[in-house]
Amino acid sequence: MQFTGQTEYDHENSSLKKGVLLCNLGTPDAPTPKALRTYLRQFLSDYRVIGIPKLLWWVILNLVILPFRPKSSAKLYQQVWTDQGSPLLVTAKAQQKKLQQRFDQQFGEGQVPVALGMRYGNPSIESAIQQLTDQNVRDIVVLPLYPQYCAATAGSTWDALADTLKKYRWVPSVRFINGYHTTDGYLTALAASIQQQIDKTGMPDKIILSFHGTPESYLKQGDPYHCFCHQTTRLVTERLGLEKDQVMTTFQSRFGKAAWLQPYTDKTLQALPEQGVKNILIACPGFSADCLETIEEIDAEGRETFMHAGGEQFHYIPALNDRDDHIDGLYDLVTKNFS
User: Fold this and answer.
1) What's the rounded Cα separation, in Å, for the pair 146 and 337?
2) Which domain holds residue 279?
3) What CATH code is carried by the domain that includes residue 331?
4) How many domains, in total, are found in the chain?
5) In 3-state terms, what secondary structure has residue 329?
6) Is residue 10 part of a domain?
7) Contacts of 65 (CB under 8 A, 6+ apart)
8) Residue 36: what are its φ and ψ, rounded to 5°?
9) pTM of the model
10) N or C: which end of the chain has fewer CB within 10 A?
11) CA nearest 225: which of 251, 201, 254, 200?
């Protein structure tokens, strides 16, 4: 193996720094079939994401999915793509910028660099680590922006981080934050975003918290994600002073024919109007930034499903994105993890 070494380090005048690595899932470089094929190949080749025997999955991925799915996925991305690029990447850069400003104000400009790395696509985790070590950062707090730990997200981020650092001769100190759904900063910002919508449009018949789904088999194999999602719902319901039956947890974005965590968000939205629930607020607390799964799947497709089934009011509450209270919570979380 070819190791990466830092040969320009000044032993006489060292100024080693602390740094922050923000991570998120990632995005294709462009809303085109070619870019989607590259992105999906990397994403769907991750065994943390797809736990099917590798040889069988190779056949399915290369002969069934990649020849066809990139074209349909590209059309969906084209509907949410902005002049600045992918919504997820645009927001992630805004989060990085605001967090960097907070550290510059507190510790001095450039004293605590904040880098951004995506698990799949660009900028990569490898390039972000290189960016930090090039600035003499030797103490890194890694923050995957997934509030609720899941093996397919935070666990996979750890894998990518380890794959990068095992190539280094001088491995930096690392603190890895594997989740933060019970932290005061996160819950305060989440509750505030919901309360602001209630103040604006009134109390709905039901508040839905829709989390990204995973196969049920992951739960049975010991992944705590399902429990953390329900814990998030309970904690934010308590903060809002609401009754348990006013807020429900659902799971979205299922893929394939296997059973996933239930209840499914799309089936719930279709059924609620018949149950007399015609005015809803819906938020996606597992997403730290709005992306295809929130903008298109929930605010577009989900809205259409609910209204077509007889719903009357559908209010989507944006992800926390670069809200100031969200950035405050992330800043507090990171600084508490500095040595």
Assistant:
1) 17
2) 184-317
3) 3.40.50.1400
4) 2
5) helix
6) no
7) 40, 44
8) -65, -35
9) 0.95
10) N
11) 251
